[in-house]
Amino acid sequence: MFYVQFIEIVNMNQSYIINQLAEDREKYFHAVAPPIIQTSNFAYPTVDEFTFAIQNEKDEHIYTRGNNPTVNMLCQKMAALEGAQDCLMVGSGAAAISNSVISQVNAGDHIISVKNPYTWASHLMTKILPRFNVHTTFVDGTIFENFVNACKPETKLIYLESPNSWTFELQDLAKIANFAKKRGITTIIDNSYCTALCQKPIDFGIDLVIYSATKYYNGHSDVVAGAICGSKEKITQIFHNEFMTFGNVLAPQNAWLMLRSLRTLPIRLKQSSESTVKILDFLKKSPKIERIWYPFNDDNPQKALALEQMKMPMGMFTLALKNRDASAIKKFCETLQNFLIAVSWGGHESLIMPKCAFVSENDPQVNMVRFYIGLEEADILLEDLELSLAFL
Ligand SMILES: *Cc1c(COP(=O)(O)O)cnc(C)c1O
């Protein structure tokens, strides 16, 4: 069923976006692969042309902190994939978070955020923004009314992450966006888990969609990058303010690597998703596992919402092992031959992130292990899991 859905979204002219859009080959010797315009600045033959370019910095080329042709090609493709009017590429997902959030608030304003957002989003809202008198209320985002109840006259921003990347709680995007619009509140979603291929928040009315492009979009564990997608108006405003001031620029070389990564995004996601479904079918039957967090699992009370908002299964889930002994859990993790112990996810390689690396041995979450399924053959991963689970 998921497979059929997947084919449908690939047919939505994503092929054109990924392979043709913004590729002006006549400008570069009909080369199939685009050039890396590795330059910091751009020269003009006349003062008048220079003046015109400076007055239109976002669309012309003045200086690579603003606009660079290789980076711009990527921005156009990312915006089109998102169904957004415009996109800014930045140097990391954290930069996408900080630039976009700060762009929407002034001193005295209030933010409502889902509880436990990505670590550095949380740091921004709990440690940095309070220094400028911007305060945040964190709510359980699975319940719509929590947003309504947390709303104050000075609320300017609702910050979402659906699903989040440990326990995969969702928010009802259409309902929240509709409520926010009526109150003049901006909505931002960190859509890194889904990518535009799985979930299009703009269709639900969300204003700004941000990414850690380090994860699925780049997908080869060799570039750190971020993206901010939204209306022309909002993106232009961010460009002239936070983007140019904070200067978290994505280098042309890294934009080029990302352009290359985009060519294979649909097949990478397809492989990871199909393997994940197979692996989950196996894990669901294992007597060694207490619980699995995954949006499409039958025991997820938000499964219906996941099916409504997300177009396909993605490659990350969390297990709670029955065995709570930290040394046994470590042994399990270290025995897995095809899963690296590491942060991040979305690359070619399968990963695990054991909670016991971060919490004490008595912590109630000590038995949680997050899995990311990469591009290895599913059977190899299954065999590996079967052998290692035997240690528990
Ligand atoms: C990794 C991650 C980020 C941060 O992105 P970087 O590219 O590492 O700065 C933000 N949100 C989510 C959900 C992530 O997984």
Automatic annotation (TrEMBL):
The record's listing under CDD domains reads: CGS_like
Does the keyword Isomerase feature in the UniProt annotation?
Answer: yes
**Keywords, in A-Z order:** Isomerase, Pyridoxal phosphate
Give the protein name, as stated in the record: L-alanine/L-glutamate racemase
Protein EC: 5.1.1.1
Q: Does the keyword Zinc-finger apply?
A: no
Q: Name one Pfam family in it.
A: Cys_Met_Meta_PP
List the source organism: Emticicia aquatica
User: Top-level EC class, please?
Assistant: isomerase
Top-level division of the source organism's lineage: Bacteria
Instruction: Name what cofactor the protein needs.
Output: pyridoxal 5'-phosphate
Q: Which GO terms describe its molecular function?
A: alanine racemase activity
